[in-house]
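Blinded run. Sample ID left blank on purpose so nobody reads anything into the name before looking at the predicted structure. Input follows.
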Amino acid sequence: MKSLIIDEKYNHKKLNTVLQSVFPDLSLNTIYKTLRKKDIKINGNRVSQDILLHTGDKVDIYIVDSLLCPEKKLNIVYEDEFILIVDKPSGIEVTGENSLTSLAKGKLLESVYPCHRLDRNTSGLVLFAKTEDALSILLDKFKNSEISKHYACHVYGIPKEKKKTLTAYLFKDAKKSMVYILDTPEKGYRKIITSYEVIEEFKDNTCILDVNLHTGRTHQIRAHLAHIGLPIIGDGKYGKNEINKLFGVKTQKLCSYKLKFNFKEDSGILNYLNHKEFNIEYHF
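Blinded prediction complete.
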């Protein structure tokens, strides 16, 4: 049995939607069976329908853990005494309950500290520190752009300029969990810089972009590419539904596939990482 307290982002959302968001491996068929058996309680009352939830509601789900949170494999790309690099699958958060961080802690039987985040439905490389000293150094290196992350994105459309650095301005609406992009600065908007390079082109008017972030804002890649007419295939928030349906894709085809360390100053115990690069085959 698991219990949830509904936070603001799930306010006025249907029960099924929330359960599948929190437990991405949980099938709709299992939810319906559980509702028929009245094995879900909302604020202590058993329910049999897909009802609306509100902030502060308590949801008790009487489903075996193996269906709610099946055991996931930790795909370690690199590990030493100071850092851990993991290939995150789509459908799991980096932090929180049943997250990549909790999985890593459970498998390694020691503390690990995520140095950055990926969206739930973005796959690819996540860097963890294994000591507080290493965490402090790595956070500083990210802040000073001495660690670069490259993303592979499968987008609809093929840009005329095969390599370009884009500048725009982003506003984050926390209540709607959305961001908005403008080409000119306005109050409340923060500057963003995104570089892309075409690395593969296809006959179906799609291509794979290598994207490098010079600024790290919420949903920056997804929103910025959509803004210039190159929506990521499968992106339900910033993409186009007709395109996603055309390709039969429900989650964004976005993967963090490369980490590069280019330290400008002394990095103490992590000096050995300078000029190192870690790559995986991108997967969506």
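Unblinding after everyone has recorded impressions. Residues 132-143 form the longest helix (12 residues).
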